C-alpha cells in the first residue's frame, strides 16, 4: 500500500514537475481527481472562505516544495549531522529553483514581520488580532513566499486543522482568558516531531510517507497544552542528516531543498533547516528544531536566530524520530532571546516516556523569563574557546568586536580558555551515533504500531535502494549501512566509546576548563557565513562550535552577532549541565547590547562589493 502510494507520488512529480512546483490550480485539480478528492489544496491551505476554518485533508504531496538534505557542521568531515525539515516534490524543480531565483523580486513587507510573542499577545489583548487572524496571516505569507516568490521551501506540510484550532482558542480566551504567553501563538515544528493528528511525521523520508504516530510527542503535547497553534511542519535534512556523510543540508526526499532567506543560493544549514528558514522569514512566530550535534545552533547561526540546545533531559525526546539517545534533544528557535526563554519554559517537564527527564527534577523552570537581565554580563567570567576560531578572517573580526562589547558590559574575559580535548573524541562520537541510531530508530518504528510503513532500518535501506532515483539522486546512505552493521548496545566497543565521549567532553573537557578558570560560560563563533548550496559536492562547513556541548549533553545557546557580506553569523554561549539560567542571562545581555538581528532581504546571491 505504501509502496504504491510512493509510486503515485513519484509519477505525479515526474509528469508535471513545474506545475507541481508552482502550485498551479489546473495541475492540483488533476492531482485531486487522481486521489479521488475534490478540493483545492492551495485554497484550503490559505483558509479561503470557501472552505471555512478547516484546511482540509491536505496530503503532504499537495504542498509543492523542493528537496535537499543537510550535513551538520562538525560532521561534514566525519559524516554526522543533526535534524531539520522541508517539503519538495520533484528533482526538476529542485534543480531549477535556486538557479532561477535571480529573477525573484523581494517580497512585499509583511504586517507581522519581526513581531515577538509579547507583540502578538498585546495585539490579541487589544482586539487588533485574534489567534485565527494571526494563523491566517501566517498561512497567507507561507503561500506568498514559501511556495511562490522567493520560494524558500521551508514548510513540508501544513496542519489542516490550524484555523479551527485557532478559532477554539479565541473562544476560550473570551470565556476564560489566556492560558499563558503561548495562547494563540502560531508555531512551526520540525517534521521529525510526532503529532497524532491529520499531519504525518516522516523525517523528510518517502519511506515514512503517510505515517501518523499513535500519540503526540511530548513536545507537541506541551505546545498544545500551552495554547500554541501548530501551523505545520518544517522540512529538514532527511533523517536529521544522518543518512550520508556527503549530504547537502536542508534537502529531503520528501521535502526537497530549503533555501536560506538571507541569500537564496546559500544553505540554511541543518538539520533543522526548515525551522531556521521559516522562523527567520517570519512564516510563524516561533519554531522548534532538534539537535544531535549542531542541528539547532547551526541553522540558527545561518538564519540570524537565537537557538538553544538545552541540557539532555530538560525536554523529553519521546515521540521524536531519533538519531541517538545520548545526544538528541529538541530546542526552541526564535528571533529573540526572550521568545526562546518563553518557549523553553513551555517545553520542560518530567516525562515517564523519557527516563532522562528525571534528572531535570529541581533543575528546570516553567519560566525562564525571570533570568533575562540586560546587565547580565556585569561581573561574569567568560572564557574564549579559541580553538573554535581561525576558519574565517571576517568571522574572527566580528568575534573580536563581540568580545570588546562583552568586556565593555562589565564581564571579565579569559582568553584563551580552550577545551583541551577538542577533536579527541570525534571518532568515538560517530561510533556511538551509529550504534544508537540502529537501536533507537528500530525502537521508534516499533512505537508506530502494526501500520508503520517500514518496520526497521534494514527496510528503510531497502526502500531507498528501490526508489533511489527519488531518495538518493545526489548522495547515498553510507551512514545507514554502517549503522545497520552494528550490534546491540551491550557491545563493548559501544560502551567504551560512550564512556570516552562523556569523560572527554565533560570531566576532561567543558567542566575542566570552567573549573580551572572559574568561568560562568564559554564563548566561540557558532559558525561562519552560509556556504553556497551544492548538490554535487555536498556541504562546505568551514568551522564553528557545537560538538563538545552536544556530546556532553550540556546547554548551548547561539545569538546573532552580525553579518559578513549580508550573511548571518552567531556567537555561542555554552557551559555546564543545567546552566540554562546563566546562559540565557548572558545571551540576553549581549543581545540587548548589540541588537544585531536584521530581517532577511531574500537576495538572489551574496553582495561581494
Secondary structure: elements and pairs:
Elements: H1 2-15, H2 17-22, H3 25-34, H4 41-45, H5 91-97, H6 117-126, H7 131-146, E1 155-158, H8 162-176, E2 186-190, H9 218-225, E3 229-234, H10 238-241, E4 251-252, E5 256-257, H11 273-280, E6 286-291, H12 297-302, E7 306-309, E8 329-334, H13 337-347, E9 381-384, H14 393-408, E10 412-414, H15 426-447, H16 457-466, H17 468-471, H18 478-484, H19 492-517, E11 521-525, H20 547-552, E12 556-564, E13 567-574, H21 580-594
Parallel strand pairs: 2-3, 2-6, 9-10, 9-11
Antiparallel strand pairs: 1-3, 4-5, 6-8, 7-8, 7-12, 11-13, 12-13
Report on the structure:
This protein is an alpha/beta fold and 609 residues long. The chain folds into two domains: 1-45, no CATH class; 65-99 and 111-356 and 373-594, Amidase signature (AS) domain (Amidase signature (AS) enzymes), CATH 3.90.1300.10. The protein is 37% helix and 11% strand. The protein has 21 helices and 13 strands. It has helices at 2-15, 17-22, 25-34, 41-45, 91-97, 117-126, 131-146, 162-176, 218-225, 238-241, 273-280, 297-302, 337-347, 393-408, 426-447, 457-466, 468-471, 478-484, 492-517, 547-552, 580-594, and strands at 155-158, 186-190, 229-234, 251-252, 256-257, 286-291, 306-309, 329-334, 381-384, 412-414, 521-525, 556-564, 567-574. A hairpin with a 3-residue loop joins strand 4 (251-252) and strand 5 (256-257). Helix 7 (131-146) packs antiparallel against helix 8. The longest helix has 26 residues, at 492-517. The N and C termini lie far apart (55 Å).
Amino acid at each position: 500500500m505504501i509502496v504504491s502510494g510512493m509510486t503515485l507520488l513519484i509519477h505525479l512529480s515526474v509528469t508535471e514537475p513545474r506545475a507541481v512546483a508552482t502550485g498551479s490550480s489546473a495541475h492540483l485539480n488533476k492531482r485531486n481527481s487522481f486521489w479521488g478528492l475534490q478540493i483545492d489544496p492551495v485554497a484550503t491551505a490559505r483558509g479561503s472562505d470557501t472552505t471555512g476554518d478547516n484546511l482540509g485533508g491536505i496530503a503532504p504531496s499537495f504542498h509543492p516544495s523542493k528537496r535537499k538534505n543537510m550535513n551538520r557542521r562538525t560532521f561534514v568531515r566525519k559524516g554526522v549531522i543533526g535534524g531539520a525539515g522541508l517539503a519538495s516534490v520533484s528533482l526538476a524543480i529542485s534543480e531549477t529553483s535556486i538557479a532561477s531565483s535571480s529573477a525573484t523580486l523581494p517580497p512585499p513587507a509583511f504586517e507581522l514581520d519581526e513581531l515577538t510573542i509579547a507583540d502578538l499577545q498585546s495585539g490579541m489583548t487589544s482586539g487588533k488580532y485574534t489567534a485565527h487572524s494571526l494563523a491566517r496571516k501566517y498561512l497567507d505569507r507561507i503561500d506568498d513566499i514559501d511556495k511562490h516568490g522567493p520560494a524558500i521551501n521551508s514548510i513540508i506540510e501544513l496542519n489542516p486543522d490550524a484555523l479551527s484550532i485557532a478559532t477554539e482558542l479565541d473562544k476560550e480566551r473570551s470565556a476564560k482568558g489566556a492560558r499563558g504567553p503561548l495562547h494563540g501563538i502560531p508555531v512551526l515544528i520540525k517534521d521529525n516531531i510526532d503529532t497524532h493528528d491529520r499531519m504525518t511525521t516522516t523525517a523528510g523520508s518517502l519511506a515514512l510517507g503517510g505515517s501518523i504516530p499513535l500519540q503526540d510527542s511530548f513536545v507537541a503535547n506541551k505546545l498544545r497544552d500551552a495554547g500554541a497553534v501548530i501551523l505545520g511542519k518544517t522540512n529538514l535534512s532527511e533523517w536529521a542528516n544522518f543518512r550520508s556523510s556527503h549530504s547537502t543540508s536542508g534537502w529531503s526526499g520528501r521535502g526537497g531543498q530549503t533555501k536560506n532567506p538571507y541569500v537564496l543560493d546559500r544553505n540554511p544549514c541543518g538539520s533543522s533547516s526548515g525551522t531556521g528558514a521559516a522562523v527567520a522569514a517570519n512564516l510563524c512566530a516561533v519554531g522548534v528544531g532538534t539537535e544531535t550535534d549542531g542541528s539547532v545552533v547551526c541553522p540558527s547561526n545561518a538564519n540570524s536566530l537565537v537557538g538553544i540546545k538545552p541540557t539532555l533531559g530538560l525536554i523529553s525526546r519521546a515521540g521524536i524520530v531519533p538519531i541517538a539517545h545520548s545526544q538528541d534533544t529538541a530546542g526552541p528557535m526564535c528571533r529573540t532571546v526572550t521568545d526562546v526563554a518563553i518557549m523553553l519554559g513551555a517545553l520542560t517537564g518530567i516525562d515517564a516516556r523519557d527516563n532522562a527527564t528525571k534528572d531535570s527534577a529541581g533543575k528546570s523552570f516553567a519560566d525562564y523569563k525571570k533570568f533575562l537581565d540586560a546587565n547580565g554580563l556585569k561581573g561574569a567570567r567568560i572564557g574564549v574557546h579559541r580553538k573554535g576560531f581561525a576558519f574565517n578572517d571576517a568571522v574572527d573580526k566580528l568575534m573580536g568586536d563581540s568580545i570588546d562589547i562583552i568586556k565593555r558590559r562589565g564581564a571579565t574575559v579569559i582568553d584563551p580558555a580552550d577545551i583541551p580535548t577538542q577533536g579527541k573524541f570525534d571518532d568515538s562520537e560517530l561510533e556511538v551515533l551509529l550504534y544508537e541510531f540502529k537501536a533507537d530508530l528500530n525502537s521508534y518504528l516499533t512505537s508506530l504500531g502494526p501500520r508503520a510503513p517500514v518496520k526497521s532500518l534494514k527496510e528503510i535501506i531497502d526502500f531507498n535502494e528501490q526508489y533511489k532515483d527519488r531518495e538518493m539522486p545526489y548522495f547515498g546512505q553510507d551512514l545507514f549501512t554502517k549503522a545497520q552493521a552494528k550490534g546491540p548496545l551491550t557491545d563493548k566497543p559501544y560502551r567504551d566509546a560512550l564512556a570516552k565521549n562523556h569523560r572527554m567532553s565533560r570531566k576532561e573537557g567543558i567542566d575542566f576548563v570552567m573549573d580551572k578558570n572559574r568561568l560562568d560560560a564559554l564563548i566561540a563563533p557558532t559558525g561562519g557565513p552560509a556556504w553556497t548550496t551544492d548538490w554535487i559536492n555536498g556541504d562546505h562547513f568551514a568551522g564553528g562550535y557545537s560538538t563538545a556541548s552536544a556530546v556532553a549533553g550540556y546547554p548551548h545557546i547561539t545569538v546573532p552577532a552580525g553579518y559578513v557580506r549580508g550573511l548571518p553569523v552567531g556567537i555561542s554561549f555554552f557551559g555546564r549541565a543545567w546552566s540554562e539560567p546563566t546562559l540565557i542571562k548572558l545571551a540576553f545581555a549581549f543581545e540587548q547590547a548589540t541588537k544585531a538581528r536584521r530581517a532577511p532581504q531574500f537576495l538572489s546571491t551574496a553582495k561581494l562589493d
